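In response to reviewer comment 3 from the previous cycle, which asked for concrete evidence that the modeling workflow produces usable outputs, we include below a single protein chain processed end to end. The sequence was submitted unchanged, and the resulting structure tokens are shown without manual editing.
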Amino acid sequence: MSETVFTKVDYDLGSLVKYIGLGEIGLPDIQRPFVWKNAKVRDLFDSMYRGYPVGYLLFWQNALTDSARTIGIDSKQKPPRLVIVDGQQRLTSLYAVVKNIPVLRENFESEQIHIAFNPLEERFEVADAAIRRDKSFIPSISLLWNDKTDLFEVVENYLDGLSSSREVSTEESKAIKKSISKLQGLLSFPFTALELASDIDEEAVSDVFVRINSKGTPLNQADFILTLMSVFWDEGRATLEQFCRESRKPSKSEASPFNHFIEPSPDQLLRVGVGLAFKRARLKYVYSILRGKDLETEKFSDERREQQFKLLKDAQQRTLNLQYWHDFMNCIRQAGFRSGKMISSQNNLLFSYILYLIGRTEYNVPEFDLRRVIARWFFMSAVTGRFTGSPESAMEFDLARLRDVETSDEFVRTLSHICDITLTNDFWAVSLPNDLATSSPRSPSLFAYHAALVLLDAKALFSKIKVADLLDPSMHANRAAVERHHLFPKGFLSKQKITGIRDTNQIANYALVEWGDNANISDQAPADYLPNMKARFNKMELERMYRLHALPPNWEHLDYRDFLEKRRELMAQVIAEGYSTLVAERIGEDLEEAEIDLSKLVLNGESEAVEFKSTLRTNLHTGDKDGRMELAVLKTLSGFLNTNGGMLVIGLSDDGTPVGIQADDFTNEDKMSLHLVNIVKSRMGVQAMTSLHAHFDDHDDCRVMVIKCRKSPTPIFLKDGNIERFYIRTGPSTTELSASQTQEYIKQRFMG
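The workflow returned the following structure tokens.
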């Protein structure tokens, strides 16, 4: 016969309640959120009353010795002999009703479970106002097991109350006494428990649970650890749950953890504390560590357990520090996110908080620098969905990269480097537009686009109010201040035989508008409603609006699917541009809004930060399109990007003489802008576009194109055939660097 890992032990309800009260059975804190409905508790007592089986209990024998000391201030509690693995909800129900103790619901509201009993009908009900007024019910069966209760007095009081409302026969009186006595006798109801041996690990325990549990629900590793906390550091678990409770309601006077991003659960905050204390994201081994197990010798030690709990206690204190908590939330705001409605992964937020705490409390990174790099990290991991697939593996991998980090500068550089190698040109140009090809209303890429609009200080489409203001989570009305508007309305699309939700609700068909405009537009065709909307704004406002809301030229006349494809690419560029504001070493004057005195600029002539080009693509000597002209423009732009930024004016000769953009023979200015975007993307990468902004201006009766360049956060290479070249500005000229010079320059400029 094969050796078993368990023994079968029989209990009755009375002994279970007694052992829980004494601490022999480690029922997690009665204040842990209780998920059973009261009706299920009623049914449990009904089944026991009728003598039906109510399932096995699964216990795990504690490996620690009887002399083990508890952690915390509750001197009454002793280390349990048994820890509950399966049956916690049943035992909590039984213990709470028998002992008349309130439970805490998932919303962290305290509630007393009152189960009523009709002795004559032998019927259980959840007590409500009507039941309490009904003299045929004992309003709370908990009364029967109170140490001070006299059963005869209970029966007498019940009969007196019932007799006041109706006549009670002798037979009924006997039946009532028998039923009440039978109910009180439930303390002898038999239970069978399977007690797992102390030397099997938590993986085996979880496997056993799955095999005997009809629902097959895997045990949560966090449940193991929270149970241990209840046993050895009850104060710590209570503090966790108090923090979670207070995070759900705003406080008018005192500081509180309430925020608009997350209502954390104890297991989520536990994960933060574990990550901070042990630099581990997988909870697989943490339970064993906290039990005092040496993972090499597999032996348990009280001293080791106390040391590990001390680390967890310190980490939890930092995790629940209200100043740290709210300062971290400022990082999320700095990333452009305004509420939990914009966050698709709470794992991302929690892991970002771990990194924030590590940077602040272990590497002493200055708050300004820390906030910037955490904001950048959060945006990166949000837009890529970094922690949506296998979050523990991804977190473990990222934490491992910090093991050799020794200084605050190295900490910032490490996180920045991970961001850089993740958000490549291919991501912006290929992966992100593909990610935007979805109808999912909670797509990470859609939320990243909204965050980018906030970062770029964009106004809602057809509105004078900023997106950031309209997304304010503190505002509540019958309709949201800003709504997702179908640029091609569903009613219009249905006339085009496009009716599938996956087609009509593509996120590239959405734009943020005020609810009033959304209602007024209704099902009108874009070509019909757009003229009235455009009439609200001047040309510069429309240019900026079209760019930030990723609207292709003449989009209202495009085929719907062509529109979606073009807009996805433009949305990806806007997201990249928003992200670039988090990367810049310093955010200077907003280039799009800055006033330029073009006449003064021309008068001062070319310099390290200013250059003039006669044309974008036309050779004035031959009158033909010439790729060398485009290359000259791209050299200048890459030089500006790789140095300190600058401004290129197209339509002026080297000495500032007006030539005008008409020499390039574009159909209109939108076509010229699109051509610039295309050649920059194809030869310098999408990342370059995030640091460029082009607009048109008048100078001496000529139209010119003004291209403003921010200092790029990453190196920009220019493709020249099959060769990638690297340029910088040296005085008023653009200089190509050799391979060795490039390597050294990048090291100093971008990695130093």
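The chain has 31 helices and 19 strands. We consider this sufficient to address the reviewer's concern, and the full set will be provided in the supplementary archive.
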